[in-house]
Amino acid sequence: MGIDSSGYIWLDGQIVPHVQALIPLDSPAVLSGAVIVESIACSTNIPHETALSTVVGVDTSSTVEQPARGNSVTQQSGARESATQQPGERRFLFRVRDHFERFERSCRIAGIALPFDIDRLCVAAAEVVRMCSDMPACVQAVAYCGIPETHATKESLGVPNSTVHVALLPMKQSVRYSASDGVVDNTAIAGQTHSGGNKTSSSDDTFVLNVPESSGVHAEISSWRQLSPNALPVALQSIAARFHAELVLDQVRRSGFNEAILLDEAGRVSSVARGNLFIVRDHYLSTPPASDGAPEGITRDTVLCLAEDLHHEFDLHILEESMTRADLYAADQAFACSTTRGIRPIVSIDHRSLRGGPSTRGIVEALQERYRACLAGEIEEYRDWLYEV
């Protein structure tokens, strides 16, 4: 995942080239990790193949009117019209207010004084999506503490005269959500890809993953533990938590897996490395509670709502309950979910295949389809989750 090809971001109320977003090495953001992050999913109503038809192999930079340096968001209202969009294409931000409310809560937990209100950030995120010629996969929000300045009047992290900067970055990836997509991220993870999930030695004798996600998610229970709420709150969307997730994923990838499952210090199941975990057994859909270290995921909440709609079709009952390693091994089905990667079926845990019983077949697939339809604006009762840009 990287910056959209436009090369522009929103920074402190202005559209600027992303190369101008420089963080001083002696700032609290760098030296103390004083950074809060949030990802907001983008979606479109047109088929994935059509959306890519004018992007693959075509240089669209000449057709996009780039914002002038330093112009404010409100001055760039024409950016959407100048961007390359398909006829009839509609672009959405999914549950953007919920995401920015969580972003604001994280800043409050961290003692960081967020300089923009939620309404302003929602409008700015929409402007970021409008200015992109290619539909971004998500908008990445970042709040970070810069160098203290005498003109600053607020205090952050106990530091007087703190400056807090906010950036919104349009992020691209090889798979994004659209009306004809499934919501599984089929991007192959680093390393040569071949079937079987074997490990191979690279030139520096380290093991790299060989399991593309197109073959499904193969998870391992990590020896790393979920962050303790008494050390670093899981509710805090911090850069430190993301680094913890990278450590966890690095471990399992070296063992030939492409996802990690975290337990808490008591051995209860918490989550996957970057998202939430669900299992299906008999007619029950279960997910760990926040008290066991499960992140307060917005996609998790979405799945719980969508699962209620499947109650009559599958006689499906929903539980938020503590789980053990044995519960994972006994599951018929399992899946991971997150904002940036959607719903991803897990096909094995610790080399144990999840075959699925007769009563549970089709549940994960039905949730995927309903989630896809929700993102595309096809389900009227959930259209208030979409913020059209």
Short description:
This protein has helices at residues 28-31, 48-53, 79-82, 96-110, 118-130, 239-254, 298-308, 311-314, 325-329, 363-375; strands spanning 2-3, 8-11, 14-17, 35-44, 91-94, 138-145, 164-172, 177-178, 200-201, 207-208, 217-225, 259-263, 269-272, 276-281, 284-287, 317-320, 333-338, 342-349, 352-353, 386-388.
Question: How would you describe this structure in keywords?
Answer:
389 residues; nine-stranded mixed β-sheet; alpha+beta; single chain
CATH topology of the largest domain: D-amino Acid Aminotransferase, Chain A, domain 2
- The helix tally amounts to 10
Give helix and strand order, one letter per element, not per position: EEEHEHHEHHEEEEEEHEEEEHHEHEEEHE
- CA-based shape: globular
Number of domains: 2
SS elements, strand count = 20
Explain how this protein is built:
By secondary structure, the protein is of the alpha+beta class. The protein has two domains: 2-46 and 89-172, D-amino Acid Aminotransferase, Chain A, domain 1 (2-Layer Sandwich); 217-382, Alpha-Beta Barrel (D-amino Acid Aminotransferase, Chain A, domain 2), CATH 3.20.10. Helices cover 23% and strands 25% of the residues. The chain has ten helices and 20 strands. The chain has helices at 28-31, 48-53, 79-82, 96-110, 118-130, 239-254, 298-308, 311-314, 325-329, 363-375; strands at residues 2-3, 8-11, 14-17, 35-44, 91-94, 138-145, 164-172, 177-178, 200-201, 207-208, 217-225, 259-263, 269-272, 276-281, 284-287, 317-320, 333-338, 342-349, 352-353, 386-388. Strands 1, 2, 3, 4, 5, 6, 7, 8 and 20 form a nine-stranded mixed sheet that branches. Strands 11, 12, 13, 14, 15, 16, 17, 18 and 19 form a nine-stranded mixed sheet that branches. It has a two-stranded antiparallel ribbon with strand order 9-10. A hairpin with a 2-residue loop joins strand 18 (342-349) and strand 19 (352-353). Helix 4 (96-110) packs across helix 5 (118-130). The radius of gyration is 21 Å and the shape is globular. Mean pLDDT is 79; it is low at 48-82 and 174-211.
